[in-house]
Amino acid sequence: MSSEEYITDKFKEAVKTALSKEARLNFQTYVLGDSGEARLRFLIESLLDHCKRPDLLDLIYTAAKELIVNSTKAAIKRIIFEEKGISLTDETKQEAVMQEFKDNLTDKKFPYYKKSMQERDMRVNVIFSYNSQRLLMKVINNFSILPKEEQRIREKFIKAKKYDNLFEFYMDHGDSTEGAGMGITLVEILLMQLGYDPHLFTIYSENGTGTVARLEISLSSNYKPRRMVFEELLRKQQKSIEELRKEFGRE
């Protein structure tokens, strides 16, 4: 089945109508199969054509897909822990079953867990907000980051800084990136390779109820991303990061 056959006229019309109103776009999934990939790509292509920035397709589509896959892996891990009666705070027992978790990371095994994800409502939402100034993509799941996961995320952000381009990245990892949790590193490298500040990509826990991966791209030379505005205020004001974050809020 070709990718075009997955995209119904109803879906095309819904995307077209939303873009004509410059409404926020919301793509929801549990496991991103062939049909989901086709619809996601169509949505992003349509959005970038609307923004007159088709050159951003590789960055935005790759980032969205990698971050959805990361969220699916995180959900599967929690399902395995639950099935084995392991508490999310028991890191010792978690490490003991991590090999089984890694064995279930490939895309081919994702559908096996789809029903369990639906029963637990472990969905992933990809939200696009946009105007003439900037494009904001948020990939949100509805469970918070575990301490060990947060540590690994930090390590991946650090790891990305050792690469100047994708060629070096793939020379190091080859085809082993599938299931190796390298999506975050890949997104950072893509940003840097296109000349964007990697700090425009962040991951954070939202009120302890979910996890958000946030990517903001300037579409105008006059636009200053919120992350940069926040850092400028932090330097100027005598306030802690936590205090300023409460005042500044999230978008």
What does this structure look like?
- The protein has 251 residues and is α+β, with helices and mostly antiparallel strands.
- The protein has 2 domains: 3-220, Histidine kinase-like ATPase, C-terminal domain (Heat Shock Protein 90, 2-Layer Sandwich); 222-251, no CATH class.
- It has helices at 9-20, 34-50, 57-83, 91-96, 98-103, 110-119, 147-160, 166-173, 183-193, 226-236, 241-248, and strands at 25-29, 124-130, 134-141, 201-206, 210-218.
- The longest helix is centred in the N-terminal third of the chain and has 27 residues, at 57-83.
- The protein is globular and about 50 Å long.
- The protein starts with 8 loop residues before the first helix and ends with a helix.
- Residues 174-180 have low confidence and may be disordered.
Short description:
With 251 residues, this protein is α+β, with helices and mostly antiparallel strands. The chain is 52% helix and 14% strand.
Radius of gyration: 19 Å
As a percent range, the share of helical residues equals 40-55%
The profile of the biggest β sheet is:
5 strands, antiparallel
Q: End-to-end distance, in Å?
A: 38 Å
CATH superfamily of the largest domain: Histidine kinase-like ATPase, C-terminal domain
The total of helices stands at: 11
Outline the low-pLDDT stretches: 174-180
Please give the CATH architecture of the largest domain. 2-Layer Sandwich
* Strand-pairing-aware structural class: alpha+beta
Assign the CATH topology of the largest domain.
Answer: Heat Shock Protein 90
Number of strand elements: 5
The largest sheet has its strands arranged as 1-2-3-5-4
What share of residues are in beta strands? 5-15%
Provide mean pLDDT, rounded.
81
> What is the CATH first-level class name of the largest domain?
Alpha Beta
